[in-house]
Design brief:
The chain has six helices and eight strands, in the order E-E-H-H-H-E-E-E-H-E-H-E-E-H. The protein is an alpha+beta fold.
Length: 187
């Protein structure tokens, strides 16, 4: 039975980080997200690449409060911005969403990615009461794949040659992974 939609456009304290919806960011936080997203170590793994203008970023941020199928959060801790987590393509009928995540590339903290994964899993399963969380990750992003496996995600499939890498003129596969509420509870 489908559950009612839950208001996710609010702050949460999960896994020792504060999740702030993009719709609630101040100017400094908005710019911090833009700087992280455009950093070469983040942009290289995005299907859409980098070089997002500040104007385009502002326009994207302005639409956040109206978006009911995608919710994005700046994660902060006592050292500042820790990264971004997202639930995309929220499907309340099937209790399913797709994970989005990147850590702050300006912070060398060990374990930061694991904390962000813990926060997004808590958000998905404890707050949103989803049944399944899915993700897609470039097959050449071995570090991320290992982190997802440690967090309880399982391989579910592959989209062959789904992402074009202009720097190498090659296509890479997207690995499909997922975790269910039961697996999260027991991980």
């Amino acid at each position: 039975m489908a559950q009612p939609e839950i208001d996710l456009q609010r702050r949460f304290e999960l896994a020792d980080v504060t999740l702030i919806p993009f719709s609630m960011l101040d100017e400094q936080q908005l710019v911090a997200v833009w700087q992280m997203r455009n950093h070469p170590e983040i942009a290289r793994w995005m299907n859409t690449g980098g070089d997002i203008t500040l104007a385009a970023h502002r326009a994207f941020m302005a639409r956040q409060s109206q978006d009911t199928r995608n919710v994005n959060y700046l994660c902060q801790d006592d050292k500042g911005p820790a990264g971004v987590i997202s639930l995309h393509r929220l499907d309340w009928h099937n209790r399913l969403a797709w994970l989005g995540i990147y850590r702050n590339p300006f912070r060398p903290d060990k374990g930061l990615g694991a904390r962000l994964l813990s926060a997004v899993n808590q958000l998905a399963f404890d707050i949103a009461r989803l049944h399944t969380l899915k993700l897609e990750v470039a097959a050449d992003n071995e570090r991320a794949i290992k982190a997802y496996l440690r967090s309880g995600f399982r391989h579910e499939g592959l989209w062959r040659e789904a992402v074009y890498r202009p720097q190498t003129s090659n296509y890479v596969d997207l690995v499909l992974m997922g975790i269910t509420e039961q697996e999260w509870t027991h991980s």
